Amino acid sequence: MWGGSTSSDSTRVRSIPIRSGQCKAFLSQFKQQSLPACKPVLTPAWVIAIHLLLGFVFIPIGLVTLHASRGVLEIVDRYDADCVPEEFKGNKVSYIKDTSVPKNCTRILKVHKYMKAPIYIYYQLDNYYQNHRRYVKSRSDQQLLHGLKYNDTSSCKPEESNNGLPIVPCGLIAWSLFNDTYTFIHGTAELRVNRKNIAWKSDRDHKFGKHVYPFNFQNGTLIGGGKLDPNIPLGDQEDLIVWMRTSALPSFRKIYGRIEEDLEADDVIVVHLMNNYNTYSFGGKKKLVISTSSWLGGRNDFLGVAYIFVGSSAVILSLVFLLLHVKNPR
Amino acid sequence: MQKSSRKKGKIRWSKLYSFSCFQPHTIDTVPAQDLIGKIGFSRVVFCNQPQLRKMKPYKYANNSISTTKYNVATFLPKALFEQFRRVANLYFLLAALLSFTSSPVKRETLIVPLVIVVGISMIKEAVEDWYRLLQDMNVNNRTVKAHAGNGIFVDKFWRELSVGDVVKVNKNEYFPSDLLLLSSSYEDGACYVETMNLDGETNLKIKRCLEATLGLNEDEEFNQFRATIRCEDPNPSLYTFVGNLEFQDQTHPLCPSQVLLRDSKLRNTDFVYGVVIFSGNDTKVVRNSTRAPSKRSQIERKMDKVIYLLFSVLLVISLITSIGSVLFMKSDMVQWWYLRLQDPEDPKPVKSGFQQFIRAFILYGYLIPISLYVSIEIVKVLQAMFINKDIEMYDQVTCKSVEARTSNLNEELGQVEILLSDKTGTLTCNQMEFRKCSIAGISYGGALNEVDLAASKRMNNDVEANRFSIENSGSTSQIFEMFEFSLADSSIQKAVLEDQEGLDFLNSGNSRISNVGKETVVKGFNFRDDRLMNNQWIYRSDLFNVTMFFIVMALCHTGIPVEGDETDKLKYEAESPEEVAFLIASQEFGFQFCQRTQSILVLKELDPSSGKKVKREYKLLHLLEFCSSRKRMSVVVSDEEGKIFLLCKGADSVIFDRLADNGRAYQQATTSHLSSYAEDGLRTLAFAYRRIDQADYEQWNSIFTKAKTTIGPERNELLEKASEMIEKDLILLGVAAVEDKLQKGVPECIDKLAQAGLKIWLLTGDKKETAINIGFACSLLQQDMRQFHIYLSEEAESNNQMKAMKEEILHQIESSYHVMCTDSDRSSPFALVVDGRALEIALHCDIKYKFLQLASNCASVICCRVSPKQKALITRSVKEHTGSTVLAIGDGANDVGMIQEADIGVGISGQEGMQAVMASDFSLPQFRFLERLLIVHGHWCYKRISKMVLYFVYKNIVLGLTLFYYELYTCFSGEVLYDAWYLTTFNVLLTSLPVISLGVFEQDVPSYVCLQPFTSKGKKIIFLLEPDRGLDIEWHGCILVIFLANMYILSPSAFMEKGYVADITHFGAIMYTCIIWTVNCQIALIITHFTWIQHLFIWGSIVLWYIFLLVYGALPPAYSDRGFQVITESIGSAPIYWMVTLLVVVVALLPCFIHIVIQRWFNPMDDHVIQEMKHCRKDITENQMWLREQRNSQKMTQIGFSARVEAKVSSFEEGLHRKKRSI
């Protein structure tokens, strides 16, 4: 199969008359445009070989990737619709806005297969445009780092101040912080969920101040999302840090925490959640995702399939070209 | 030297010249003199009175000239205006201004590149103009002797001269401005002027001062000199002048023969005195020149169209974005509480929609490649550098190389379709060589021409090849027969046997080489024939005729001997270079013309009987001057024995008409020689003589003297009659053929260019016969061509009636066209010869179209006697009518108009003036370099630039459209996926070097293949920017792949083992990496010629992106924004990042790759075939095939050397065929 390839480097060095004395060969070759060059010519043999090579590289990668992806277990549970009490089904918005109605809700998740720790907990929001320009730019990185010392919060519009006092952290992103909470019961005991180290280290160290405390936050007439403990500095408010990393697409997951013990197959997990966050007014969806991870990350069949597809089409193409070449040699 | 020229000064030229085409026209200029003082003729010049010149109406500009485009004050506005005439620059200016209102990206990222781009272009303009300024200063700082008062002449800069100054111009100096000739070193006030820079004519012109000012021929005389000139206002007409000189209380009418024009040169005259009448920009030659237009190449114009297209795409997607955003805002977005849109201070949807439009307009600006222009500019400068440095276009004689003076026309070189060429100095060296002669019916000097030789060689080769093929089939006898035929072909065999030199020709294959180097070469004499050389002619049987022939050659002329550097060899100066060639030849043959006095010509001649040199004196009785209407010249001389001869030379037709019945002995043989000489492009003159009895002479002398002394209009007629009386009953001696020596390599170059499909037009100021000769010499004309001549008959010209002339011309054009249409099936090509006067009428708007239609259907066109203005006019008409790219090449100031008018102007940097070079876009030291310039560099540059533009657009579309697609996912909110600095570095840093290396180094085929006729055919490649559907889909596919693959792979699940999810910063960085890889690998697919520089730039750019990410990410977050630690912390350690890159690059490029493969397999272009053939070394292994391909492409051509050989071969074959059939 490989025999068809020949060397394509046909270099040709033209002799250059030497002018005055020791002229640098390179300079003169450069000026005369006669530098040694390789001129790959797409001969049939090369074309077939390149396609075959592609196939032989891509198909194994694809198989390995697909295998890794298949090894990841994922439990997805959409709860936004089911957690609304029957009487509010017709008007979910009023349910979510009514502070007197209790928001707690219970979901039961069944583990189908053995899940190895660490198991990651995500919340997924759909149809939520965190990438809207107005939303993305409504933050002040300087203020997040330096707190009240930094006055210019004009970028945070329309959420830069309240009652004449600046807000820390200002801006729409922080204001709309996701505030559903989850507790997981495994059997009888509560599963320990590690909510530390879920944000990027660089964010914690360099973007959010270690001595910046929330101030005047969610004090306005309009309350957006979650509140922050004013006694914890921003650098330790990992929920906020994760939330502040705006997502690129309108459907996104954000990490909530880690379960650091294995789950056996057929385990049943009861989730007590507080359904606080308003996705009803814009028809968004809320999902709870529990997933293990591989070297590849989460479950992602697309990559493997794509690799296999490209690899196999390359092989097919090479066969087609081979047939053409045999039938119709140059 | 000084002494000898003083001696010459004593000759009264006015007596020598009995006929005068140059005598003052006293009669017909009278009516024009009435105009003086009226509108258009109001100029008053006070000669030698500086104090009077300051008065208001008589204050004229000084003599400095300026050809610069800008000055210090106008540079900024003018150059800025030039820059913003470019669409892309204008767009970016608009974007930069809009960015002050609302911008999705940082303002600096818009303004900085614009400033850089515009700045670089403006610096380039400034530098180019600076060189123009230096050139002007060089001209303005030449010095001339000017009168400073009290009869003292001092050196003065040209620029300081003012109107009315008296100047003294010495021999071989240029006139600093338009002068009125006052007196010269000759007693009769005549002087010789070379006007090559004005009209390209090389023969000297006589100018003559007024009788009244003859006395002013000493410096001291000018102490008291006062005069006033009243004349016409400055105008561009070179051949007219109307004015009066008021001198010593008398008014003398002036005419053009007293005016010395700027840029012409004083020759053969020691000095002249003159008064400045027009200075600086008022001079006729400056008025005649046109401003250098800024030229733009076709690709640049096409590029504008592409930019318009992109611009409209930009508008459309901006509109989509803004409408989309408004719609979303009205319907859904109000409910998105997290945006807080319901706040009252927020803008209304329409207004915000408009803002959104502006934002999108700026954002998608990446569709329009801002750095395209500047990259192209850089590339072109480098290309120009390569052209300048090409050692194969370096002339070792003059130590000059090709110079690309404006770099923005490089790629246009590859597109030239019509070549307009000047003759003198461009094709020829302006030097005549004595080549051949036919004396008494015998032709001397190499009888075989190159075409015959090449043809016979080809024939023999073919026969040889045939023989082998038939030998194999067993019928040997038949082929031997054929072989014999080809050898027995009479014309070849005879020629080869007869002429020893023929064998030399055959061996060397090129006569030009074989002639040089055997002996010391005499300039102007290129004749080898042992029968005549080295005094062997004394053994000829027809000794008398031979002697007479040489005597005619040595006596019948107007030349003057000048001492040469060698002791016994003299040099000559004469009115025309032909005469010089004849004098040199006769000297070589042993008839040295060594002295001329008023009435005596002295020859040092070889006495055949004694074999010694003897000095003989001939008395010059009369000289009947050469005139274009007479086409002959005669001298009446008496030798030492008192025998009177009339010696005559002239055009063959004129001489043959005047032969005596007993003088026609050799007419037939001579005629056949004449035609063969003419076919070789030699200029021929027939020589004849007549013995005159003393009595006859006395009788004629009285008549002639009477005619000479007549004053009045009938004088010329009487003279004409008198000369007719004696120039009859001549005895033909033979013809001499001189070659207007072509520059080195000219025929070969023309041949190659013709094979490359160029049409070649010859525009010359010379007369028709000369032009046709050169046409033959350059193989532009050949014997079996159908020639159409368009000219004005003499009566029509004399009547000077526009309508009649127009009808005549129209009739000629139509009849020629008719012939062409009916004869079009014949294989012989057509040629058109047009006279300048006829051309003037033919280019009138109503018949212009018909004329050009005729002309463009002819294989070659020769225009003779054309003025500089006409040259420019032809150029413009051809350009407009045919719509093809026109290249004009010339060397003198008379070609400037043409050079500027053409799409590409090329100047020959010869020894004469620099005007043509200054006006040109490219300057060549030799015409022959044009071949390499057009076929190699033109081809390369064109391919390079077109590939580069195509790729540039591609890469910007890739980037721009990913931005747009992302908008679809953000509800058209205007959010940018990439960090602002990623975007800024895209065009400047990360993708610019590979594309520049593509534009500079790409070679689709090596240069020596370019020069073979095979590829020249493929010169016209399709410009890939023409909509290529396949490519469009591929591009689009590629962008979608980049986008969607990222979309699906990165969302929504985690992309790292640690469970992290990709957010907008990771997404942007990964997608951008994919773009960088794809774009750079795409260029690797386009490039076919990789040196290490390309490798370095392409792969280096990719590496640079990672380095950039590292460095940028290491900056504090306040600066690095989205790039902060993005590669070190997150994406770098995610295997998925690298896998996505690999997948996306392969998938995005696979369609394009397959497209290329399929195209190469099923629809290969010429360069593909050649590349492949070279690759498999087929050109070596299968030489026959290679040559056959070459020959196939040759057959297309109709002009040039090979075409002539082809024609010859086919005529041989025909003859062979006929013979065979007869047997």
Automatic annotation (TrEMBL), chain A:
It comes from Hevea brasiliensis (Para rubber tree). The lineage of its organism: Eukaryota, Viridiplantae, Streptophyta, Embryophyta, Tracheophyta. Belongs to the CDC50/LEM3 family. One of its GO terms (cellular component) is endoplasmic reticulum. The keyword Phosphoprotein does not apply. This is ALA-interacting subunit. Its main location: membrane. It is found in: Membrane. Keywords: Membrane, Transmembrane, Transmembrane helix. Coiled coil: none annotated. The chain crosses the membrane at residues 45-66, 302-324. It comes from the Eukaryota.
TrEMBL record, chain B:
It comes from the Eukaryota. Keywords: ATP-binding, Magnesium, Membrane, Metal-binding, Nucleotide-binding, Translocase, Transmembrane, Transmembrane helix. Residues 45-109 form the P-type ATPase N-terminal domain. Pfam families: Cation_ATPase (PF13246), PhoLip_ATPase_C (PF16212), PhoLip_ATPase_N (PF16209). GO terms for molecular function: ATP binding; ATP hydrolysis activity; ATPase-coupled intramembrane lipid transporter activity; magnesium ion binding. Its EC number is 7.6.2.1. It is a multi-pass membrane protein. The keyword Transport does not apply. ATP binds at residues 422-424, 579, 626, 649, 683, 764-766, 865, 871, 894-895. The active site is at residue 422. GO terms for cellular component: plasma membrane. Belongs to the cation transport ATPase (P-type) (TC 3.A.3) family. Type IV subfamily. This is Phospholipid-transporting ATPase.
